[in-house]
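for the writeup, i need someone to sanity check this before i put it in the appendix. the sequnce is what the collaborator sent (i think, or maybe the updated version? ugh). structure was predicted straight from it, no edits. if anything looks off just tell me and ill rerun, i have time this weekend
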Amino acid sequence: MAEGKFGPGRGFGEGLFTAGGESVRALVEEVVQALIGMEADEHFGAPWNAKGLPRSNGYRNGLKGRELRTRMGTLKLRLPQARNGSFFPSCLERWQTSEQALAATLGEMVIKGVSTRKVAQLAEAMLGVEVSASTVSNLVKAIEPKVNAFRERPLGSYRYLLVDARFDKVRENHRVLSRAFLWATGVTPEGQREVLGWLDWSSETGRAWSELFRGLNDRGLTGVELVVSDAHEGLVKGIEEAFPGSMWQGGSDSERNEREDASRPSGGGQTHFMRRALDLAREVDKAALCEDLRIILQASSRERALEEKALLEKHWGKKYPKLVAYLEDHFDSVLAVLNVPAGHRKRLRTTNHVERVNQELKRRGRTVRIWPNPASRDRLYGALLMEQHEQWVGVTWLKPEGAGATHRRGSASVGLRPPFADPLHSLRSIYHRGLTETSGHY
């Protein structure tokens, strides 16, 4: 391309106040072009078309057109090129930084839950620039290296592991399928929470959980004593293989549609167990049974829980044999939390912690409805989990054992015992009075 002389041309500034906004745009274009030419002369050590002068930073190599969008309109500029690629106008570098900041802001809006179409509409309304929804989606891809670096970071010792899963509609191979998204958080010996990792999988199976746990172990995860979760398919076997000797604090074998039913109370672990157990009883007995089961679940020790369990079996066994058998089958899993310090039990006995994070993922997923591909969901959910991890940094969720703990193992735990409106409804009060039948129960 032939080079041209920089600077204001003939008739520069004519009609500035009579030709409307176009003259202002032309003025700004000429000024910016002149600044670029002056900077190029200084960089190369010689003006344009000078002969016989040494070039300290190499030689020019023609011009390259570039458009720059501003509030005055689009500027059509000509950028001098260096043979060794050593020159780029500093004024455009500053604008390029602002453009990158704008792109980061648009991408952050998508991560926060604003749909790509709404972000595109907002950019056009505020900046007068047309931004397609696909362009906004591509902006989010810029965070992928950072998200992957976070997911692959080395791990250390974590005393407790809390895991959960959710399902979303994802487009794959021209079909819309339901895919699982598994994720795990950990609690350090100092009592701080961290997001450890996640996995996109075609379904929630034992192989999927084993793959997630294998990845965590490969990154250095050690010291797991207790895993807290709902009764996901294949999870218990995966825990036994990945973390030998660890315990599982879980709930019942609740079905997926029950977990996703927003009309039901939130919570997992003991909450799901309680819900499924009460489904086996008549409506008239549910209030009394609920209080009796809570005494077992919130006992201060395993021995105390076994005593209360024996009382419940004696009183309700003939009327509800299926409920008693259900309690027997799940007794060890729902009370594994009794093997940890008393000050940690209240938060570890349910999955409320992971359910709250899962609700945030669900809220974000509703704006998408159908994900265009598995990678897009993996990238966006990963960014949300990374942001959640940063919010937890420096926050003590569980007090270290012996550091300001208010309870000791084996003692009654203040705040864990359920408040009874009427003591006569508790199983212990019934037996202390020597009653074998109560009209309120039968």
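Strands lie at 60-70, 73-82, 160-172, 175-187, 193-201, 226-228, 247-249, 370-371. The two ends are 97 Å apart (CA to CA).
thx in advance!!
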